[in-house]
Amino acid sequence: NAGVTQTPKFQVLKTGQSMTLQCAQDMNHEYMSWYRQDPGMGLRLIHYSVGAGITDQGEVPNGYNVSRSTTEDFPLRLLSAAPSQTSVYFCASSYHYEQYFGPGTRLTVT
Amino acid sequence: GQQLNQSPQSMFIQEGEDVSMNCTSSSIFNTWLWYKQEPGEGPVLLIALYKAGELTSNGRLTAQFGITRKDSFLNISASIPSDVGIYFCAGQSGNAGNMLTFGGGTRLMVKP
After folding, report:
1. With an 8 Å Cβ cutoff, is A10 touching chain B?
2. For residue B102, which residues of chain A lie inside 8 Å, CB to CB?
3. Residue B28: beta bridge partners?
4. Contacts of B40 in chain A (CB under 8 A)
5. Model confidence over B19-28: pLDDT tens digits?
6. Are A95 and A27 in contact (CB under 8 A)?
7. Would you tell me which residues 24-63 of chain A have a C-beta closer than 8 angstroms to some C-beta of chain B?
8. How far is B4 from chain A (nearest CA, A)?
C-alpha cells in the first residue's frame, strides 16, 4: 500500500493563479480531509469528505474548493491564489478517528 | 471553535532524559490522538486513546486519556536523538464526525 500520496511536493504560484493539489489514498477509507499548517498554529481543517459525493467545510474553507468523485481521490482547488495561502498542505484519510497523513505540499504564493 | 492548549511549546533536553507534555481543553473529547512530525514529512500517528483514564504505551512512549476527558498526556522515557520532532495532540469530540482538533505542537530537541 502506498497509503496517502500528494502531488506536487512543492509549488510556487503568482497571486491570482489557480491550481489543484492532488491527494489519493489506496486504503479504501471513506473519510478524507485537507489541512493547512502554518508556523506556530498546528493543523487547521480546510475541507473534509465522509464519502464519495459528500463534502463539507472545515475551520478555514475560504478560497478553496473540493470535490470527491471517487473514494480514492480528494483534490483541493485554489481558485485565485493569495499570499495568505502560502502554507504547507496535508491530506489525510481514515476509516475511523485515526487519520493517516500524506507527505504534504509546500505552496508559496508570491 | 474548540481549542487545544498544548504545552510546553518547545523542549531542549539531554539524551537519556524523560519527557512529558500535555494537552488541555475547555471541551470534552471522546478520543485523543498523539502524532509526531519530522521535518518535511506529514504527521505520523503514535498513540490513540478511546476511553477516559486509559493508559496506553507504544515502546518508550506512554499516553494517558485524562479522567475529566478534557486533557491528555504524553511521556517519552529515555529520550534518544531520533525522538526529535514536533509532537501534536488531537482530539475528537463526537459532535463533528471524524473531524479532529489539533494542538499547536511541542517541538522536542534532544542533545546527544
Report:
1. no
2. 35, 42-44
3. none
4. 103-104
5. 999 999 999 9
6. yes
7. 31, 33, 35, 40-45, 48, 50, 58-59
8. 10
Q: Which residues contact B62 (CB under 8 A, 6 or more apart)?
A: B55, B56, B74, B75, B77
| C-alpha to C-alpha distance for A15 and A110, rounded to whole angstroms | 6
Q: What is the DSSP code string of A74-104? A: --EEESS--GGG-EEEEEEEESSS--EE---
Chain segment B98-112, per-residue pLDDT in tens: 788 899 999 999 998
Nearest to A45 among B31, B44, B99 (CB): B99
Query: Is the CB of B42 inside 8 Å of chain A's CB atoms?
Result: yes
How would you classify the pairing of strands B106-111 and B10-14?
A: parallel
pLDDT in tens, chain A (110 residues): 779 999 999 999 999 999 999 999 999 999 999 999 998 778 999 999 999 999 999 989 999 999 999 999 999 999 999 999 999 999 999 988 889 999 999 999 99
